[in-house]
Model the fold of this input.
Amino acid sequence: MTLEEIARKFDISLDKLRKYEEQGLLKGTLLQNGEKVYSEKEISHIAQLNDLFKAGFSVEDVREYMDNMRDEKQRLRLLRKYRNILISELHQKQKSIENLDYIIAEIKKKEAIS
Done:
């Protein structure tokens, strides 16, 4: 499968796929005609790569995750690390929402009094 076909299949931009390639996360095989194709194994990892980056994984951690496909303990450690980061960010955002709600309520009280 070519990069263009992969982009269509996963609805991922070519630029993003090229970036994965530049980062060494996708390799592909160069054919004699100059076309680059990707193995089924690489293709199966693309959606996972995208999800990991969306979750905030660094390039180094994505590479470590992909290099340790057979070491489930290591992969779980990385997944839990980023899950905890996301939960912490979620809590921080929830607190910010609560603070904004308080300010809104205070302004409404002042408007009601006036």
